[in-house]
Amino acid sequence: QVQLVESGGGLVQAGDSLRLSCAASGRSSSMHAMGWFRQAPGKEREFVAAISRSGDITYNTDSAKGRFTISRGNAKNMVHMQMNSLKPEDTAVYYCAAQWFWTGQAMDNARDYTYWGQGTQVTVSS
Q: Which of 47, 63, 68, 124 is the one with CA 20 to 30 A from 14?
């Protein structure tokens, strides 16, 4: 069993930064793919970024590239996302996701992942 716990969300102003973290526990040492999705009220869950254990990275270019940076912790069972220049449209619940394997594709579909955290709220005021 794998558990994912997110942290780092909060209320910030437009232009501020936040760093989200996700810790995997349980049978997590072999977790290959870890990613972030987000879901705003009334909208579908949206892919933000993903990273493999070996460092392959994909971003949702529309929402993340250039402002968000995903990284793995040294222990490889953590994933972080540095979010800079936040905008009100970044307001959402951010979910960490994990999977045993990396498909070699973008890993940008929620169906690619088996394990999910409970989410952390990010609110950006204008």
A: 47
